[in-house]
Specification:
By secondary structure, this protein is α/β, with parallel strands linked by helices. The chain is 45% helix and 22% strand. Strands 3, 4, 5, 6, 10, 11 and 13 form a seven-stranded mixed sheet that branches. The chain has a two-stranded antiparallel ribbon with strand order 1-2. Strands 7-12 form a two-stranded parallel ribbon. The longest helix has 33 residues.
Length: 315
């Protein structure tokens, strides 16, 4: 028969009271200094308080740990064993605090952001510039993806904060509005819609094949939702492209009409490369939102970036 040298936890008698860390520190100091009075002085407590604390520790463990004499305090054999374990506990605690401090310092010096294309291209540069002005030592890493995937990056810990422009979230998360955007229908100046005098109807928009962003993008989600709320079918893709810049280029080249963020096409409309077309009966406004995991408090650089974004929107 093999006898295990590891005690069965079901048969081990645990102490009546779990020792607190300050009592363990007191015991270690008594061992190092050979005096309860000097140990108390080191901890900045009175000797009577130290004596009571030590007595409470002994009662909780059911052991006599220290022999008190006129010439000082000396550990018993049991006290020596317990002190050895106490040193290990305190060393591990010190290591934990050091590592936690390093993680905190790193978190304060680094911000990882995930953002949808529209926010990343047209808004985040100004937000980041202002934040860096306050925190020049801050490293900021940015991942650009569509609105559907931003929450995944934040929830997995790959990003500290996310920004989206779509109406839907792929999972339950905490959110805060940081601004508003409006989608506009755009065509090249030679397109028949560029000469319209009457607004385009929501029905015409839903029936016309468009140059569109890919499914999952905030722009596509907003357009599909707006048409649905207006009682029409989803937008019909003529071409699906993976970036706002690609869609703009295709429309300017005459491929077909599109619906894009006003932030992305404001300059093109002003300079005549694109023409904006009014639409009746459909609401193409959308909220821009910061997202982070539910139950997690927004702190540090992430919270500061959200504050910057909200303030920029009110200017």
């Amino acid at each position: 028969m093999t006898v295990s040298s590891t005690p069965d936890r079901r048969t081990v008698r645990f102490p009546l009271r779990t020792p607190d860390l300050e009592s363990l520190r007191l015991l270690v100091l008594v061992a190092d200094l050979g005096s309860l009075g000097r140990a108390a002085e080191q901890l900045r407590i009175s000797q009577p308080s130290a004596s009571r604390r030590l007595s409470t520790l002994e009662r909780g463990l059911g052991l006599v740990l220290v022999d008190r004499t006129r010439r000082g305090s000396r550990l018993t054999l049991a006290g020596q064993v317990v002190t050895g374990h106490a040193r290990c506990v305190l060393d591990e605690l010190d290591e934990l605090l050091i590592r936690a401090g390093e993680l905190r310092d790193r978190r304060e010096a680094e911000l990882r952001v995930a953002a949808s294309l529209t926010v990343a291209e047209y808004l985040l540069p100004a937000w980041i510039s202002e934040l860096r002005g306050r925190r020049p030592e801050l490293y900021i890493g940015l991942q650009v993806t569509n609105s559907e995937h931003v929450p995944e990056l934040v929830e997995s810990g790959e990003a500290d904060i996310g920004f989206i422009e779509g109406p839907h979230l792929s999972r339950v998360m905490s959110t805060r509005q940081v601004g508003e955007d409006r989608l506009v229908v755009v065509v090249d100046p030679g397109h028949p819609w560029a000469r319209r005098r009457e607004p385009l109807s929501a029905w015409e928009l839903s029936r016309t094949p468009l140059v569109l962003r890919e499914s999952g993008s905030g722009t596509r989600q907003t357009l599909d939702r707006a048409l649905h709320l207006a009682g029409h079918e989803r937008a019909r893709p003529l071409v699906e492209l993976g970036s706002t810049a690609a869609v703009r280029g295709a429309v300017i080249a005459g491929t077909g009409p599109s619906v894009l963020s006003e932030l992305a096409v404001r300059g093109d409309i002003a300079e005549g490369r694109l023409t904006g077309v009014d639409v009746a009966g459909v609401d193409l406004t959308r909220d821009l939102r910061a997202v982070w995991p539910t139950g997690r408090r927004l702190v540090g650089p992430a919270a500061e970036l959200v504050t910057v974004a909200r303030r920029e929107d009110t200017r």
